[in-house]
Write a structure and sequence with these properties.
With 450 residues, the chain is of the alpha/beta class. The protein folds into 2 domains: 139 residues, Alpha-Beta Complex (Aspartate Aminotransferase, domain 1), CATH 3.90.1150; 273 residues, Aspartate Aminotransferase, domain 2, CATH 3.40.640.10. The protein has a 7-stranded mixed sheet with strand order 4-12-11-10-7-5-6, sandwiched between helices. It contains 14 helices and 16 strands. β13 and β14 form a beta hairpin. The two termini are 42 Å apart. α3 runs antiparallel to α11, α4 packs across α11 and α13 packs across α14. The structure holds pyridoxal-5'-phosphate (PLP). The site of pyridoxal-5'-phosphate has 14 residues, from α5. Belongs to the class-III pyridoxal-phosphate-dependent aminotransferase family. BioA subfamily. Its cofactor is pyridoxal 5'-phosphate. Homodimer.
């Protein structure tokens, strides 16, 4: 019989887990999952957990969703994979048509990679290469926001700013121009989100005015810096950014890998600012959380800058083996069908409102500095001192206590440092949200005692 403990033993003998100090597992049990259904994950000892973080923000419509399962099974019997250079297939064509139809206006060309970081790499290279093909060889730099996260490969890591992941590798990384984030946790008392975000734009304007000649693109996570502890800002910043990028002749890369596909409350976060970026990077929810797939969608002017006689060597020669994998595309098509058929964005508004109400009482908690929410992302920030907002020392790992408490109470919560958050699959029910709110409340009490 397979149970948790023998699977853990075999695992720890041979695996190296992501984003993990493996020594922690001397005292922090791994959780081997046997099956998933809807919001539930079940381990080998029969214990269940509500997947409140959508398995690292990828799952949209529950585990083992019958509609997505069916589509993948059908595709599996037709074609599992084929090279996408020189060849094509129906799911990738259909998915490209869909993505062009649903992404912000003007984005008309889809380029595929097989994970979020590699989509960022492709967008950075495309932007740089676009300018090069225009004879603008002096454009070699990128502007990024402080506290941003764009993935872990060296190029993506370079334009990110979460020091925990980046600092060690600094000697290997290209150096972006980093501009202070419009993060509204930092706003003055009494200032609104839009006032703060507007004020913070002055830094971006200044960086563009000073460096535009050498800058290929500005890269941002629209509205929510997810890995940066779910810090949020106002759509007005994106509006100002689009205008300034146009004014200074710099491209705009929107990394919607985390916030895309409804997380922000709209299908894409850029919609809330009424803007179209020059590149939108998509992954995570793209396949409903089933398979690794990512896309960079861009517009015709950029595409045309690469379209040339072969001898001129202006083509974009970037590739990955599993580019446009048919099974991933089939999962994505099934996922997008669910958005169309079930009025997901409208229904999520009720779930989002319920999430907000369910934790509203924590506003008064002596160690909760802020509860913030953008659509289906809700975050609660624990602090040592509510008045000064002095954070708990990171070494105390208070969030981990919430994680451990949740596991004992049928929930998977995985705080980012001192920030507890919900980012659940959209099939969660109000009752299940209430359960998460209870577990989070207890967890925060336990974690902030003494
Ligand atoms: C997760 C994430 C990435 C990286 O995607 P991976 O598939 O994990 O490589 C990039 N940008 C943002 C905003 C993300 O949240």
């Amino acid at each position: 019989m397979m149970n948790n403990s023998n699977l853990i033993q075999r695992d720890l003998a041979t695996l190296w887990h992501p984003c993990t100090q493996m020594k922690d597992h001397e005292w922090l049990p791994l959780v081997p999952i046997k099956k998933g259904e809807g919001v539930w994950l079940e381990d080998f000892d029969g214990r269940r957990y509500i997947d409140a973080i959508s398995s690292w923000w990828v799952n949209l419509f529950g585990h083992s969703n019958p509609r997505i399962n069916e589509r993948i099974k059908q595709q599996l019997d037709a074609l599992e994979h084929v090279i996408l250079a020189g060849f094509s297939h129906e799911p990738v064509v259909a998915l490209s048509e869909k993505l062009v139809a649903i992404t912000p206006p003007g984005l008309t060309r889809c380029f595929y990679t097989d994970n979020g970081s590699s989509a960022i790499e492709a967008a950075l290279k495309m932007s740089f290469h676009y300018w090069r093909n225009q004879g603008r060889h002096e454009k070699t730099k990128f502007i990024a926001l402080s506290n941003s996260y764009h993935g872990e490969t060296l190029g993506a890591l370079a334009v990110g700013d979460v020091s925990l992941y980046k600092e060690t590798y600094a000697p290997l990384l290209m150096q972006p121009i980093t501009v202070p984030s419009p993060d509204c946790f930092q706003r003055e008392p009494g200032a609104s989100w839009s006032e703060h975000s507007t004020r913070m734009f002055a830094h971006m304007e200044q960086a563009l005015a000073q460096h535009a000649d050498q800058v290929c693109a500005v890269i941002v996570e629209p509205l929510v810096q997810c890995a940066g502890a779910m810090r949020m800002y106002d759509p007005v910043y994106l509006k100002l950014l689009r205008q300034a990028c146009d004014k200074y002749g710099v491209q705009l890369i929107a990394d919607e890998i985390a916030v895309g596909f409804g997380r922000s409350g709209t299908l894409f976060a850029c919609e809330q600012a009424g803007i179209s970026p020059d590149f939108i990077c998509l992954s995570k929810g793209l396949t409903g959380g089933y398979l690794p797939l990512a896309a960079v969608v861009t517009h015709d002017r950029i595409y045309q800058a690469f379209y040339d006689d072969y001898e001129n060597l202006n083509a974009f020669l970037h590739s990955h083996s599993y580019t446009g994998n048919p099974l991933g595309c089939a999962a994505a098509l099934a996922t997008l069908d669910i958005f169309e058929q079930d009025d997901v964005i409208a229904n999520n508004k009720h779930l989002a409102a319920h999430m907000g109400q369910a934790v509203a009482h924590l506003q008064d908690h002596p160690h909760v500095a802020e509860i913030r929410q953008t659509g289906m992302i809700l975050a609660m920030e624990m602090v040592k001192d509510k008045t000064t907002r002095e954070p708990y020392p990171w070494q105390e790992r208070r969030g981990l206590k919430v994680y451990q408490h949740a596991l004992q109470n049928e929930a998977l919560l995985r705080p980012l440092g001192n920030v507890v958050y919900f980012m659940p699959p959209y099939v969660i029910t109000p009752d299940q949200i209430d359960h998460l709110a209870r577990v989070a409340t207890e967890g925060i009490h336990i974690a902030t005692q003494t």
